UniProtKB/TrEMBL annotation:
Recorded catalytic activity of this chain's protein: ATP + H2O = ADP + phosphate + H(+)
Keyword check for Nucleotide-binding: yes
Matching InterPro entries: RNA_hel_CTD
Signal peptide: none
Top-level taxonomy: Eukaryota, Viridiplantae, Streptophyta, Embryophyta, Tracheophyta
GO molecular function: RNA binding; RNA helicase activity
RNA helicase C-terminal domain boundaries: 162-198
Top-level division of the source organism's lineage: Eukaryota
Name of the protein: RNA helicase
Enzyme Commission numbers on file: 3.6.4.13
Record bears the keyword ATP-binding: yes
Keywords (A to Z) from UniProt: ATP-binding, Helicase, Hydrolase, Nucleotide-binding
Any single GO CC term annotated in Swiss-Prot or TrEMBL for this entry: nucleus
Amino acid sequence: MGLFVQLAEAAKAQFSRDHSDYFALVRAYEGWKVAEQALSRYEYCWKNFLSAQSMKSIDSLRREFLSLLKDTSVVKSNMVIFNAWNYDENLIRVVICYGLYPGISSIVHNEKSFSLKTVEDGQVLLHSIKVNSVFLRDTNVVSDSVLLLSGGSISKGDIDGHLKMLGGYLEFFMEPSLAEMYLNLRKDLDELFKYKIDYLHRTGRIARMGAKGKFRHFFMESDFSYEETVATGKNYNTVNQKSTIS
């Protein structure tokens, strides 16, 4: 049994190299897809201690999610354009943080070790098999910058350079000018994402009406400046943000 566990851990280690269980799972799946083309997917799963059924389930879910993204016009049929950044692991960590927040575990450093805690459960363990304990099964390490720019709302603390999240559960201390920069960047990102969501909502509503032709004719004139800003990377704050649709 001990040898079996060691072999399984060694197989997992080849996929895990950047403190992310999610990246490890993606690499395992990508290897399975390559093996599928070579008609050796079952051998691949056996060699790497993977479940063939789990790989099939992941493949099915990915196809379903892609279909939903296409139905809502988030992506189009030309996947090359929308996959341009799919190997940027820093960007993917941002997406993971957006999707899993507020499922955050903070690291508490002690004199000789460290511990983990969450808002809901307090102290937790990492990949533990102990009875009567809460443990984190799948984790992904993110930096403070990723958390500040893609987590929940940020509030100012009691002193300059002090930022808080989750009602003070997460605290960040830095130079006041740096804190102000994070607040401004976060405001710009939130406005950009809000615009993109509104853009998709309007597109979807027009599509459901069965309208033919270019849906852009349903936008206000100021909406075009939004689109131009996103496309050219101009300063988002220069765009008029008061347009409405009657």
